[in-house]
Design a protein that fits this description.
alpha+beta, seven-stranded mixed beta sheet, seven-stranded mixed β-barrel, 34% strand, elongated
């Protein structure tokens, strides 16, 4: 069975970019299966692109090929990368931070040269002319991973700065930043791992004070219940909970935190401090 090709980008579906990538793939081999991850990644945000790969790729078979195109440096000397994971999956992407969360899982990485470019050097649509094309060549069996470009050292893979910012952990107190947002449901996720939070002596049922600031300006301040699922708090009330991705999350039961607090955004400048409520 031929491997599926997963696509993600910051292109949106409001114009023809994604369709043209799919057209290239189908022209190489009409039988190839193409699955969309997401095309609404915030523009130029390679950290989010990397995080989405971390969320999705481990749940796909070993021969899956993921193409991620979030490319603020298109046309510059940044590498066009093809990386094979220890689990066998392949990621094709600009080496611009998009491999950050997967770097420790990479077994081999190669730079795709311009011989694998439909339009030759100088194209500003590598997603269509290089990445989708290479994915199709691999998935159709016309090329092998080892035949694409030349290998380079895994240590050279570019990492996003935010990935290496560690939360501060104390008893009954943690500090971090807003790492991710879910626009559909209106929740946010912190760079604080669930297990680290629990190790700071927090327990389900605790009430915690959460303060989010941007450049020392408070954008959120509330006392929130910490529990394992939305149903443990009344409808419309906020809840801090261990997210399914492994990171602490803040949301509103059957509501939207981001609608209620529109000043909250994601990024390392949105700092959070969570402390156990003194009255608990």
């Amino acid at each position: 069975m031929k491997p599926a090709i997963l696509l993600q980008s910051d292109f949106s579906l409001t114009w023809g970019a994604v369709a043209s990538m799919k057209g290239v793939i189908k022209t190489v081999d009409p039988e190839l299966e193409i699955i969309d991850i997401c095309h609404d990644i915030p523009k130029f945000n390679t950290f989010v692109a990397s995080y989405f790969l971390r969320q999705v790729l481990p749940y796909w078979p070993a021969n899956t090929i993921a193409v991620s195109v979030v490319d603020p440096g298109v046309g510059t000397p940044r590498k066009a990368a093809i990386a094979k994971m220890h689990g066998g999956q392949i990621v094709i992407t600009p080496d611009n931070g998009t491999l950050t969360h997967m770097k420790k899982h990479v077994g081999s990485v190669r730079e795709i040269d311009d011989s694998f470019d439909l339009r030759g050097a100088g194209s500003v649509f590598d997603g269509r002319d290089k990445f989708a094309y290479v994915a199709a060549l691999l998935a159709s069996g016309q090329k092998k991973f080892e035949e694409i470009g030349h290998e380079y050292d895994i240590s050279e893979i570019i990492e996003c700065e935010e990935y290496n910012i560690q939360p501060k952990l104390e008893k009954n107190k943690v500090q971090g930043f807003v790492m991710m947002e879910n626009k559909h449901f209106g929740g946010i996720e912190f760079n604080i791992k669930n297990r680290d939070f629990d190790n700071c002596d927090f327990n389900f049922g605790d009430h915690v004070q959460i303060v989010i600031t941007r450049e020392k300006h408070v954008v959120y301040h509330d006392i929130v219940e910490y529990n394992k699922a939305f149903g443990f708090v009344p409808i419309g009330k906020p809840i801090l909970y261990p997210g399914s991705s492994g990171f602490m999350s803040l949301d509103v039961n059957q509501g939207s935190l981001l609608d209620k607090y529109p000043l909250i955004d994601m990024g390392k400048e949105y700092e959070v401090i969570i402390t156990k409520d003194k009255d608990d």
